[in-house]
């Protein structure tokens, strides 16, 4: 009970934090924001135009008045001169009329100001900005991007792949991001960002922040970094440092040596966790999953995001993975065979190339946008219904229901026929479509899709029990992503890169209906582009006629409906 309450409290806190910074969690949302900003910008331009005209008219009027005043005459002295008198008459007629006309547009100025304020109601707040800053720090860390390059406006993934931005970051931007990295325990990155801030300040002549302002932050960050490394080691649940200290201190040489030993152990440990369970013996899975802590798994996750499919996967395995055309599951596929490519046999993970056409993906996106996108929760429920939002998952989503469009129903049928499962009745055989869009650095840390029954608070309902757990995940990418955004299976060492219209699927349950932890997977941070996915989860309850009966109760299922033991024995 106690742990339940404390977990709830943590969830609420995280949820609160996440709710406060909501803007950056979807690129679609950012696009909307961009359009709003442009709209406000145009209004401000016309406002400035008006104000300039008014200023000119008033300036002209006043310049004559001041000229006269500076002549130091009394009123009589001015008026007695006929030319002066004429000028006054002209000013008070034509001159004044000009001022009045331009000032009458003052009402329009107010109108414009009101409009601008109205548009600005949907602008982000400071928490959103912090969220975006931390996202940038996380992206930089996840893909090991060069901070100087980033500051100069170049998002460089490799020698060949880079994305220039319209403008670079100034010193204050870098300092801001550095502070956020520091506060979240990313000490090595904090030092990188803050020292880059100092560099930029030097090159921009202290324009946005001065070198003297930045220096104390830099020395603090370096000191804390080295302290943490020495006392706690380079990595843990809520901190990361570089493997080496920035400054070696003579007086703590002994401790440094000790920390070096720790480091070596840690490095050894890191090697251990790069081991993949697929490596055992004959290239088939052991049934064991590695016992990783959350942060250890995150390290594996980010490495897979950076480096791609597990290099240490057994070589024998690659030969067993096949690409084939599938047409036997439904007559429809005789005309248009499915293009299957296997990524892993145990657990079975495969993709269908060109599963949806461009037009079909667009329909899903527009249906999702029509429903307003909501911040994605994780856990089995939707936000507001017991689901929680946090920075574990930064995306926005909405549900597209079966029956809402004929294309949706067509796709449901196609999916059912492809994997040989029942999607009907809707929301029992399978869930409605969850369509999600990811934001700057948008990601979803490793998790399993199954366990719906055990995850629901207060125990599963009768409906949940009837419906059963999520037996299969069928995920379609609705757009290309230029960089990042891969779907990574940490325990299987599999990386699937998004491609518009491609679908990936895997079995979450073993044939005895127990969850398969080897299916743990996550979505890599999006480095460039907008990631759209569409999930359909099949539930086990309605599959009793469809699901294969395995000889070995704990064997795994592969495509479509054969068990892995059978498939692998062939
Ligand atoms: C980052 O890029 C800068 C400028 O291109 C280069 O001088 C520097 O060596 C790079 N840093 C790293 C760690 O690669
Ligand atoms: C920027 O500030 C540093 C100290 O904070 C100073 O030494 C340097 O001269 C300044 N540069 C300019 C161009 O003002
Ligand atoms: C430029 C412009 O739109 N001027 C309008 C400002 O408001 C007055 C009265 O409301 C109008 O007569 C002007 O045409």
UniProtKB/TrEMBL annotation:
Stretches the record annotates as Disordered: 250-271, 375-404
Q: Does the keyword Endoplasmic reticulum apply?
A: yes
Concerning InterPro entries, the annotation shows: Oxoglu/Fe-dep_dioxygenase_dom (IPR005123), P4H_N (IPR013547), P4HA-like (IPR045054), Pro_4_hyd_alph (IPR006620), Pro_4_hyd_alph_FE2OG_OXY (IPR044862), TPR-like_helical_dom_sf (IPR011990)
Q: Which GO terms describe its molecular function?
A: iron ion binding; L-ascorbic acid binding; procollagen-proline 4-dioxygenase activity
Key words of the record? Dioxygenase, Endoplasmic reticulum, Glycoprotein, Iron, Metal-binding, Oxidoreductase, Signal, Vitamin C
The record's subcellular location field reads: Endoplasmic reticulum lumen
- Give every Fe2OG dioxygenase domain span: 429-540
Q: What is its main location?
A: endoplasmic reticulum
Q: What are the required cofactors?
A: L-ascorbate
A GO CC term attached to the entry: endoplasmic reticulum
Q: Which residues form the signal peptide?
A: 1-20
Query: Recorded E.C. number(s)?
Result: 1.14.11.2
Family, according to the entry, reads as follows: Belongs to the P4HA family.
What's the stated role of this polypeptide? Catalyzes the post-translational formation of 4-hydroxyproline in -Xaa-Pro-Gly- sequences in collagens and other proteins.
Q: What is this protein called?
A: procollagen-proline 4-dioxygenase
Q: Which organism is the protein's source?
A: Daphnia pulex
């Amino acid at each position: 009970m106690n742990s339940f309450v404390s977990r709830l409290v943590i969830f609420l806190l995280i949820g609160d934090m996440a709710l406060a910074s909501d803007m950056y969690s979807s690129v679609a949302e950012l696009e909307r924001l961009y359009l709003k900003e442009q709209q406000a910008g145009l209004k401000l331009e016309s406002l400035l135009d008006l104000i300039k005209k008014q200023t000119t008219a008033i300036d002209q009027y006043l310049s004559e008045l001041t000229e006269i005043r500076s002549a130091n005459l009394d009123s009589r002295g001015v008026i007695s001169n006929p030319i002066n008198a004429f000028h006054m008459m002209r000013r008070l007629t034509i001159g004044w009329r000009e001022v009045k006309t331009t000032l009458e547009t003052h009402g329009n100025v107010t109108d414009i100001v009101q409009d601008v304020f109205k548009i600005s109601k949907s602008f982000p707040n400071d928490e959103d900005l912090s969220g975006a800053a931390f996202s940038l720090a996380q992206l930089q860390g996840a893909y090991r991007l060069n901070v100087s390059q980033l500051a100069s406006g170049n998002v460089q993934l490799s020698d060949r792949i880079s994305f220039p931005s319209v403008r670079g970051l100034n010193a204050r931007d870098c300092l801001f991001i550095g502070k956020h990295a520091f506060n979240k325990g990313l000490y090595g990155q904090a030092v990188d960002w803050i020292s880059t801030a100092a560099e930029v300040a030097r090159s921009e002549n202290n324009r946005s922040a001065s070198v003297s302002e930045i220096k104390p932050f830099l020395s603090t960050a370096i000191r804390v970094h080295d302290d943490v490394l020495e006392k706690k080691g380079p990595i843990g649940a809520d901190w990361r440092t570089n493997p080496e200290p920035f400054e070696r201190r003579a007086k703590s040489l002994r401790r440094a040596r000790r920390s070096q030993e720790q480091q070596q152990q840690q490095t050894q440990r890191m090697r251990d966790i790069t081991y993949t369970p697929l490596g055992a013996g004959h290239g088939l899975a052991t049934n064991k999953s590695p016992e990783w802590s959350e942060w250890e798994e995150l390290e594996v996750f980010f490495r897979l995001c950076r480096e791609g499919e597990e290099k240490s996967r057994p070589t024998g395995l690659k030969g067993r993975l096949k690409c084939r055309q599938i047409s036997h599951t439904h007559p429809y596929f005789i005309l248009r065979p499915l293009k299957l490519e296997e990524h892993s046999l145990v657990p079975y993970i495969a993709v269908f190339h060109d599963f949806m056409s461009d037009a079909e993906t667009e329909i899903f996106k527009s249906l999702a946008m029509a429903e307003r996108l909501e911040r994605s929760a994780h856990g089995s429920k939707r936000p507001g219904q017991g689901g929680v939002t946090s920075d574990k998952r930064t995306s926005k989503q909405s549900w597209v229901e079966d029956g809402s469009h004929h294309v949706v129903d067509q796709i449901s049928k196609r999916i059912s026929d492809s994997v040989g499962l029942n999607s009907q009745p809707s929301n029992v055989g399978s869930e409605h479509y969850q369509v999600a869009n990811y934001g700057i650095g948008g990601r979803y840390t490793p998790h399993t899709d199954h366990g719906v029954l055990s995850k629901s608070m207060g125990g599963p309902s009768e409906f949940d029990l009837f419906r059963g757990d999520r037996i299969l995940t069928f995920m379609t990418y609705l757009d290309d992503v230029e960089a990042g955004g891969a779907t990574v299976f940490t325990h299987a060492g599999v990386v699937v890169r998004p491609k518009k219209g491609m679908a990936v699927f895997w079995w979450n349950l073993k044939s005895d209906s127990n969850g398969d932890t080897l299916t743990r997977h996550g979505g890599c941070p999006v480095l460039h582009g907008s990631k759209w996915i569409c999930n359909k989860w099949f539930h086990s309850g309605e599959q009793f006629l469809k699901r294969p009966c395995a000889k070995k109760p704990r064997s795994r299922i592969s495509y479509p409906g054969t068990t892995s033991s059978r498939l692998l024995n062939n």
